[in-house]
Write a structure and sequence with these properties.
four-stranded antiparallel sheet, 10 strands, alpha/beta, Rossmann fold, globular, 2 domains, 233 residues
C-alpha cells in the first residue's frame, strides 16, 4: 500500500531523512522506532506532504504520492493523529470530531460518529464537554477519534501513549489493535517499544534518518540490540 524508497527530507539546510525505506502492507500494523531526533515524526510529516520530499519516492496504492500537498494526501485516505494530540480545547468533543470529517458531506457524520463512539463510548457520554476539560487520556482518545472521522485507508499515530498512565496506555493499545482488526492499516510511531512491538506485524528501527533494523514485531522484541537500546534490558 505505502512504500517509501530512499526518501530524503528535512528542514532548511538540515537533512533529517537520509535514504529512508519502509513499507506498510494491507492489514498491517507497522511500528517505527528510534531515539528522539531519529526522524520518526519527520517521516510521518513527509508522508502527509507537510515536509516536502527532497529525493527518493513515496507511493501509495501503486501511485506516486504528491510531495508538499497535504490536502491531496488526506483526500487519498492517509490520516495522521499527531504527537501532542492538538485537539481544539474550546470546541466540544462533538465539534472536535466533526472537524475531522470536514472533507465529507455533513450527512456522513452520523455513521462515522457511531463508529468512533463504538471505540470510545466515553466520547459519546461527553460529546457536549469542551475538549480542553478532558483528561490527557481522554484527549488522546478524542485525537484518535478525530482522525478516524477522516475515514482513513491508512492511519498514522505519533506517540499515542505519551504522558499517559499505564492503565490508559493499555486501553489505547487495545483500541489500536481493534481498529486494525476492522481493516485499517496502521503506521505507529511510539517510544513505548515493548507495547508497540507486541501488537505490530512488522517494525523498523531508524537512526539519524536511516534504516538500522527491520523485522517482525517478534523478531525485533527478541533482538539484543533493540532490547538494550529501547527496552532497558
Amino acid at each position: 500500500m505505502l512504500k517509501l524508497d530512499q526518501v530524503r527530507a528535512g528542514y532548511g539546510a538540515i537533512e533529517v531523512l537520509k535514504n529512508l525505506t519502509l513499507e506498510v502492507r494491507p492489514g498491517e500494523i507497522v511500528a517505527l522506532l528510534g531515539a528522539n531526533g531519529a526522524g520518526k515524526t519527520t517521516t510521518l510529516l513527509t508522508i502527509t506532504g507537510v515536509v516536502p520530499v527532497r529525493g527518493g519516492s513515496i507511493t501509495w496504492q501503486d501511485a506516486p504520492l504528491p510531495s508538499g500537498r497535504a490536502d491531496t494526501v488526506l483526500r487519498r485516505g492517509i490520516c495522521l493523529c499527531p504527537e501532542g494530540r492538538h485537539i481544539f480545547p474550546r470546541l466540544t468533543v462533538l465539534e472536535n470530531l466533526i472537524s475531522g470529517g470536514f472533507l465529507f458531506p455533513s450527512g456522513h457524520n452520523g455513521a462515522k460518529l457511531d463508529q468512533v463512539y463504538s471505540y470510545f463510548p466515553l466520547l459519546a457520554e461527553r460529546r457536549n464537554q469542551l475538549g480542553g476539560t478532558l483528561s490527557g487520556g481522554e484527549q488522546q482518545m478524542l485525537a484518535i477519534g478525530r482522525a478516524l472521522m477522516g475515514e482513513p485507508k491508512l492511519l498514522m499515530l505519533d506517540e499515542p501513549s505519551l504522558g499517559l498512565a499505564p492503565q490508559i496506555v493499555a486501553k489505547i493499545f487495545e483500541i489500536i489493535r481493534e481498529i486494525n482488526r476492522r481493516g485499517v492499516p496502521i503506521l505507529l510511531v511510539e517510544q513505548n517499544a515493548q507495547q508497540a512491538l507486541r501488537i505490530a506485524h512488522r517494525g523498523y528501527v531508524i537512526v539519524t534518518g536511516q534504516n538500522q533494523l527491520t523485522g517482525t514485531g517478534a523478531e525485533l522484541l527478541a533482538s539484543d540490540e533493540v532490547r538494550q537500546a529501547y527496552l532497558g534490558e
